[in-house]
């Protein structure tokens, strides 16, 4: 069933459990819970070793789940854009990755937020003049 907003969902839950006493507060609490993990990362909350400038935007790339912890890794987009200067924008990094030019630890990676570790190797068959 699709509910257009929270009020309709609450009404549905209230109708289902109205015969039970004291469960309406519990049902409303269940309807207000978050849905999964946070998908955004503010730039000021990013780890300091990423060395992002404060005024470069509002958000930072949130690392995907992978072999390294999110506080101990560097997303692939930051390596290609900020460290190696292969691209100027987020979209250029996506274009490079989708051409399958980047190897991380010996495997082709197309995930822009793949967490690269401290001792990981990042090989590239891409040069900025090859476009």
UniProtKB/TrEMBL annotation:
GO terms for molecular function: rRNA binding; structural constituent of ribosome. It comes from the Eukaryota. The keyword Transmembrane applies. The chain crosses the membrane at residues 12-32. Residues 35-71 form the Small ribosomal subunit protein eS4 N-terminal domain. Signal peptide: none annotated. PROSITE patterns: RIBOSOMAL_S4E (PS00528). The keyword Transmembrane helix applies. GO terms for biological process: translation. GO terms for cellular component: cytosolic small ribosomal subunit. Gene3D superfamilies: RNA-binding S4 domain. Keywords: Membrane, Ribonucleoprotein, Ribosomal protein, RNA-binding, rRNA-binding, Transmembrane, Transmembrane helix. Belongs to the eukaryotic ribosomal protein eS4 family. This is Small ribosomal subunit protein eS4 N-terminal domain-containing protein. It comes from Populus tomentosa. The lineage of its organism: Eukaryota, Viridiplantae, Streptophyta, Embryophyta, Tracheophyta.
